[in-house]
Design brief:
SAM-dependent_MTases_sf, Rossmann fold, 9 strands, methyltransferase activity, transferase, seven-stranded mixed beta sheet, Class I SAM-dependent methyltransferase, binds S-adenosylmethionine, two-stranded antiparallel sheet
Length: 230
Amino acid sequence: MPAAPSPEPNEQAGPPSQILAAFEAAKGFMPLGEGLALYEAAVEAGRLGLPLLEVGTYCGRSTILLADAARAAGVTALTVDHHRGSEEQQPGWEYHDPETVDPEIGLMDTLPSFRRTLHRAGLEEHVVALVGRSPQIAALWGTPLGLVFIDGGHTDEHANADYEGWAPHVAPGGLLVIHDVFPEPEDEFTGQAPYRVYLRALGSGEFTEVSVTDSLRVLKRTEAGRGRRG
Ligand SMILES: C[S@@+](CC[C@H](N)C(=O)[O-])C[C@H]1O[C@@H](n2cnc3c(N)ncnc32)[C@H](O)[C@@H]1O
């Protein structure tokens, strides 16, 4: 008897193998377990038929996962970054990678690496890259979003601005995903601002927790949060 046709890859628990391979080959700061949780959230949010937005592209590692979920759902993934790196990624700091520096101008520029990553993953047509400062882009934004993934700057100033700028655009039933949430000060690597933003989101009554995977938190907009901007 012929083998039964395989289900569509995205109906399975994780991303297709070639997407997983592209993710694992990409430069970046998203561990596999958290990446799989992000992918699951993106697949769920994709059912709303709205764009999925990331703050903090870097070299596109997590973008691959959002892009593949967006592809499967027939929506677009959006990713925001000024591509000049966060504080802790600058020369002399712990997370600096000299390969990300543009030798002509001596500043970080992760855009070329991001574009190579997406091209290699075959996902370019599913992603719109928004190059600029997150609060500046958010101030111009007017479209509801199925998912907002906050993985940008880790100072209180940046993390709060990302929350204030983008969370209001999460549609009813949509997901707010926050990375690098470390409740214990001794576990944190880049500061506890994402943890404080996570508490702020829960405290607002507009979001409820859906899942916890290491430092990745998935929240959903509650009924009480319905009808807000976005
Ligand atoms: C932790 S990295 C993102 C990691 C990425 N999601 C991954 O999977 O590897 C944070 C990124 O946020 C960007 N960033 C920091 N502050 C920003 C801001 N205010 N506006 C836009 N991008 C910002 C940095 O340039 C950096 O590329």
